[in-house]
Write a structure and sequence with these properties.
The complex is a heterodimer of chains A (112) and B (112).
Chain A lengths: L3 E4 L2 E5 L4 E7 L6 E7 L6 E7 L4 E4 L2 E6 L4 E6 L8 E7 L8 E2 L3 E6 L1
Parallel strand pairs in A: 2-11
Antiparallel strand pairs in A: 1-3, 3-8, 4-5, 4-9, 6-7, 7-8, 9-10, 9-11
Chain B lengths: L3 E4 L2 E4 L5 E7 L6 E7 L5 E8 L5 E2 L8 E7 L2 E6 L8 E8 L3 E3 L3 E5 L1
Parallel strand pairs in B: 2-11
Antiparallel strand pairs in B: 1-3, 3-8, 4-5, 4-9, 5-6, 7-8, 9-10, 9-11
Classes of the chains: A mainly beta (112), B mainly beta (112).
Amino acid sequence: GENVEQHPSTLSVQEGDSAVIKCTYSDSASNYFPWYKQELGKRPQLIIDIRSNVGEKKDQRIAVTLNKTAKHFSLHITETQPEDSAVYFCAASKTPGNQFYFGTGTSLTVIP
Amino acid sequence: GAVVSQHPSWVICKSGTSVKIECRSLDFQATTMFWYRQFPKQSLMLMATSNEGSKATYEQGVEKDKFLINHASLTLSTLTVTSAHPEDSSFYICSAFGLAAFFGQGTRLTVV
């Protein structure tokens, strides 16, 4: 099955700085890559996603890049704010409606 | 947007009893739903894929007789933890795919 690795496991940045989280996947058939933000005790919330026919996608302060050849994708958060502090999970799926395999998570702390 | 509702959000049960968790898609039909388990400070681990009108597909290592899944309608999947033991204590969360994958709010199960 799919194996998704995520780095770093913890990340602390100063407010206003950028944060980058990286994921790799093993199954070349995966073609849908969402990112989720999870606050303690709450459900994961989709923040951005990318499909394999696109190399980059941006939504305000959040962007995701995908390198299908290398099988890695990254989340970029610019101008970080304290409310960005949460655990972020990447995931990979063969099609958007199929099961997701999640990365191990990154605990992001934005220091005011 | 699409909403997935999970019930109960918190349950405490005695060892040896069974607990049923419901997952409902509120404004869309889901032929497939997914059940995940999350330990504290860890990622979401896929347990099984729930298929409407047919048997669930379990991930390797997940006991199908212990975690009974029923997907009787296009809007409801249930997970029953049978003969629960303290090691089954965890955060269980379901998801279904509308325009994107949406998660239920999760169920925190504590077995005493």
